[in-house]
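Work package 3, deliverable 3.1, input record:
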Amino acid sequence: DQQVKQNSPSLSVQEGRISILNCDYTNSMFDYFLWYKKYPAEGPTFLISISSIKDKNEDGRFTVFLNKSAKHLSLHIVPSQPGDSAVYFCAALNSGGSNYKLTFGKGTLLTVNP
Amino acid sequence: GAGVSQSPSNKVTEKGKDVELRCDPISGHTALYWYRQSLGQGLEFLIYFQGNSAPDKSGLPSDRFSAERTGGSVSTLTIQRTQQEDSAVYLCASSPSRGTYTEAFFGQGTRLTVV
């Protein structure tokens, strides 16, 4: 049973436009969420995170929005750049429980076209 | 080195053989994690080490899997009598302390193929 779902396997956008990557979760115990970016043949790298006490966190071109009632979060990248082309993973954890176990979605492949 | 190093990068093994995967974490990082990514899936938690504490092995899929961390540094993941379903990318990560994933670094992974 998938507790973190990324329903779009892939997304293609034009350079300069906004990229919106979506993630849904089912476990109400999750209270901390992270986005990772992964290039081929490399390990995932941390991008941005959000605690459940917030509904938005912004870092440069990257903003994560959290809708707790809908158990939904999204990552916005604006403006998108070709170097943003990668697989993006959404991950969640229960900071009050085993706070070292991340549960990942399957990832979304983002392609930013020049 | 500056990052988490994993070896080998690629491993092809015959079904039934044993394999060892190695992870060199960032110096000073007390927390070490193993995950695996099967084809088309997200990363799956396998095991967690924190300092000298007993590891959390709850994610290991079967008793054919084991891991150790010697001297609080290098870790080895061993898979005995490999099966085709063990084929995956095995990723190691380390962080300064328990659960500090915003400061965690992943290695490039070991791609294991069981034929």
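The mean pLDDT of chain A is 95.
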